[in-house]
Amino acid sequence: MPSSTVENYLKAILRLSDGGASEELVPIGKIATALSLTPGTVTTMMKHLAKGGYLEYWPRKGVILTPSGVGAAVQVLRRHRLIELFLVEVMHLDWAHVHEEAEVLEHVLSDRLVERIDEMLGRPAHDPHGDPIPDVNGVVREDDLRKLSECGPGRYQVVRVARDEPEFLSWLQSQGLRPGIKVEVVARDPLAGIVEIRVAGVTESIRMGEAVAGVLGVRK
């Protein structure tokens, strides 16, 4: 199993490469920013990961994960998302505060324990924030979602939240917004960058900026 440091790098690169779907090189600067490290530190690690077969590295251009690197990164995501769901469903922790706990536990749980958690939870498809959980073979079943910020008037179901800051998730919960909730887009003002929605069963509407609405993945 790769070290926790290697896993964090691979996971960050996977996220920056659109889940491994993008064929474009990921710049060293973006990786450094994502991990709060200096470009020099990241460059040294990229050379190390390239030797390990996890990625291909082009000096002063960027990197791209190899199939081995994608596979290792996806398994980290699988552990992380299963742990988050376990902490919410079994340990009854608040969904707004499980990300940081999972960041630690994802590096220490064995594959056997992760498989038992998956079995205990009934082979779930999504974590508490609506992100798809890769199966044991690393297959990720992505949902066909739209950003709420791009939706016209109508009724939708919130499926995914693409931010994990505790303060933001707590605010969403205070507004009655989380995966599984149905909402109605009452109005959208692209010029002002404002989306007005109403949560199902609630009379009062909520006005939010497109930056907030853009992290809510929805479907009809």
List the helices and strands and how they pair.
Layout: H1 4-16, H2 28-35, H3 39-51, E1 55-58, E2 62-65, H4 67-89, H5 98-105, H6 111-120, E3 146-147, E4 154-161, H7 166-174, E5 182-189, E6 194-199, E7 206-209, H8 210-213, E8 216-219
Antiparallel strand pairs: 1-2, 3-8, 4-5, 4-8, 5-6, 6-7
Helix pairs in contact: 1-2, 1-4, 2-3, 4-5, 4-6
Keywords:
8 helices, 8 strands, 220 residues, 40% helix, two-stranded antiparallel ribbon, six-stranded antiparallel sheet, SH3 type barrels, alpha+beta, Arc Repressor Mutant, subunit A
Q: What structural category do the secondary elements indicate? A: alpha+beta
Summarize the helix and strand pattern as letters: HHHEEHHHEEHEEEHE
Query: Beta-sheet strand percentage?
Result: 15-25%
Q: Which regions are unreliable across 5 or more consecutive residues at pLDDT < 50? A: none
What is the CATH top level name of one domain?
Mainly Beta
Total E-strand runs: 8
Multimerization status: single chain
CATH topology assignment of one domain: SH3 type barrels
Q: Biggest sheet, strands in spatial order? A: 3-8-4-5-6-7
What is the annotated CATH architecture of one domain? Roll
Instruction: Characterize the overall form.
Output: globular
What distance separates the N and C termini?
41 Å
Percentage of helical residues? 40-55%
| Arithmetic mean pLDDT | 94
Radius of gyration, whole Å: 19 Å
Could you name the CATH homologous superfamily of one domain? Ferrous iron transport protein A (FeoA)
Number of distinct helices: 8
What summary fits the major beta sheet?
6 strands, antiparallel
Function: In the presence of manganese, represses expression of mntH and mntS. Up-regulates expression of mntP.
Family: Belongs to the DtxR/MntR family.
Main location: cytoplasm
Organism: Haloferula chungangensis
